[in-house]
Amino acid sequence: MTEQKEIRFLNKPLASSPFILVLMLLMGMLAGCTASAPDWQTMSPQPPWQDGEVATYNINAPDGSLMGVASWRISAQDDGWLLSHELVMAGSSETSTVTMDSQLRPQNSQRITSQEQVEVVYHPGEALLTVTRDGVPSTRQVSILAGILDNDQLLLTLRALPWSADLAASADVLVTASGAHIANRMLVTGQPVTLTLPAGQFNAWHVNIRTGAETHEAWYSQDAPHLLLQYRNPNSGLVFVLRSWQPAAGAPLEGDATPPPTAEELAQMPVTFKMNWPYILLGLLVQAPAMIGIAFVAGWWIRKRYGAGWNVFLYGAIVFGVSRIVHIAISQLLTSVLGANLAAWPLLATALVVGLMAGLSEQGTNWIGLRFFWKHLRGFGEGLQYGAGHGGAEAVGLGVLALATLLNVVFLNTWGPEGLGLSGASAHQANLAFSQLLSAPLYMPIVAALERVMAMILQITMAVLVMRSLTRRQPLWWLAALAIHTLIDAWAVLGMNTVGVLGTEAVLAVITAGAIGLLWLLREPPPNALEG
Fold this sequence. Notes:
The chain is an alpha+beta fold. It has a 19-stranded mixed beta sheet that branches.
């Protein structure tokens, strides 16, 4: 890995198992993702833009269809700048303004949507937030870090960075609607790339913006004034593409000179739905059947091999449902204690907390269920069947959800939005959701099916460990199940934000192989073998 500049805006049986080696490897990978952090440096950003600059963007769905337009206007005032932003979607719009000093520090901001109005006044070390909903204002004071940025200014303020191929930077942001502090890490991915957009052709820096457990993507022009050329939001899948821009007041417009559509015009545009039949067929013929079928195939084989009945399978499924309720309760409790700033945690910490919550809820309810409600279940085969029911409930639920989603896509394509009772803005939102799904790589249905198979094996392994903690009266086996669950879920969060889907699944495949090895070491002969 090349060294990068970092810039900050202003301011026993168990121990002998080969599975432990897999856990150690995974822990090393988790730690390695935060190792060798570069030194922080301080930078005073200088704005590269001119008074009166206006940039307009098309907002596209993943399939390229137009969903809305957005614009940023920059105006000089006093000893600072006023940043105005407008976003127009089908049937809705929102506006925001941020007043900045000459060093681009926020002084005040305002955001107006159809649901609320948020106003923020910044002071040293604190900010005053006023949120008005249904005409009723609510004001509170929050502590802020020195050099914090307003969320609505981040994408434009990044233009002031000293761009280079080895650029790495950070900025703390206040999410004004919630009062949360979010730490953002920006990293240029390599040499400039060429983008052809409605506004023209540009050489661009591609930067990943990591925000907690999410990674956003943006492209900035290599040459001054380092325009924001393109931006992709990982949550919605929306892509902002530069449509036109005016360098300064009175300067000629560059790019698409046609007036952008209004919210009403966007809502009346026909929904152009683009089908991806190979993806749909793989989902219908491979993904959904595999996700639903793996549970019953596993339960049938375990029953035939070990004699553990479907009632044991059902017990595991019931406990999985209870664990979901417990998980939600733990999540809500954690949110109430930590507040909105939970999202501001570093990625590794967030991943470990997410993993621990999942581990405690699932392995905790597994232990309680087997310890107090089904005391007669103590065999190896029953542990297998219990785990199959636990993991199978999740697999079937996800499989049915995937099947329903794919069928809705087919219905939308066959009968149109009206056939599903959708029109106007709701039709465009459905198009956005389905186009985001269908724009995924063609291998994703197969990856999803394989992931469920691996998850089933891992759930069965952890259930056997919990069962063993009760039969042997050794709590370390339960702790092993908890640790495995925590690390697996933590890696899922961390891996998706560092090495992507295939890298994440590759590591999970190695862990699953270790789980199979562990089950082999812990295996017990079936009842008929004992009788013989």
